[in-house]
Amino acid sequence: MLDLLRGAGPAGLGRAELAARTGLTPQAVSKITARLGADGLIAEAGRAASTGGKPRTLLRLVPQARHAAGVHVDRDELRAVRVDLAGRVVGECRGPLDFGAGPEAVVEAVVRAVARVADPVGLPLLGVGVVAPGPLDHRAGTMGRVTGFPSWKGFPLRGVLQGRLGLPVLLDKDTNAGAAAAAGAWLRATWPEVEGDAGGAGDAGLVADAGGGAGGVPDAYGYAGGGPRTCVYLHVGTGLGAGLWLGGGVYRGARSAAGEFGHQVLLMDGPPCRCGARGCVEVLCLGAVARGDLPEAARILGEAAANLVALLDVDRVLLGGRVVEAAPDVFVAGVGAVLAARALDPARPVVALAGAGVAEGAAELALGPVFGRAE
Predict the structure, then answer these.
(1) What mean pLDDT, rounded, does the chain reach?
(2) SS3 for 295?
(3) How is the beta sheet containing 42-47 ordered, strand by strand?
């Protein structure tokens, strides 16, 4: 029910509509909404236009009622945000990080960052989403053998942080958070920007070209108010990976290993990659970036993306990460051109900027249980 109200935005929904969409009885909806109202999570949004009878009372989510934090642990930088229930950023900090300094140093940095973005006089955080380079075990909360940083293998990062923070902690790959951020940006666009926020509807780049919304009217690509159903998020930063949003949620695979996009081989006997293979898309793409040849980097990324699109038949390819953010037009055009050239179907996927950061996606994952999504 909270998820439906979040998607409806400030306009809200009536109890009868909530009953119809959830399959609950009107009596059950009345009891649940009364409890949510007593907890401060929902409030009245006015009345709907009369259709001949008594105007319906509309209910809306109260975004400021609860907050969650998201932390992006990158190889050389840490960024943390605090978001409200609509996913809007209301606090942010960032700074340099040496991932190679080891788990203990990174744990201290995360704890300090969460303390900085937390509201010292407000409600406690619901939880913290922490995302880091993979591979890692999402279910166990332990790190894998991160490429280039073998000392991290087996470190129980989630458990250690839960003990230090005293809060629920979710651990996931940075690319999965990028996919979640894209879905969050879609929903966040239904909420107006709040004065004084560090971010808001203006950063929802995912929906910049969309005509749909919470009202359920499909946009040009078939999406209705629930947001994207299938997309891939490609992250180009200090590494290269993919997050998969399939069937309305993040797809991680049986062993949390899905999305190791950067280590597909594009060039047999090509240059050695730090993963141990040769000719991986990561070493080829980042090599072009290092040479200053961004159009070539975009072309290489596009070739790898075309392979993924052919396998998964997704609706959108979303691009993010600091390399993309430094030259967004080059990467959107370059990847789009390759997908157009290799398309087997005229209805090829849309290429767009993700429009929201990985830290926002980490916070979105932490909000999942509030909205009935078991992450």
Answers:
(1) 85
(2) helix
(3) 13-14, 57-61, 42-47
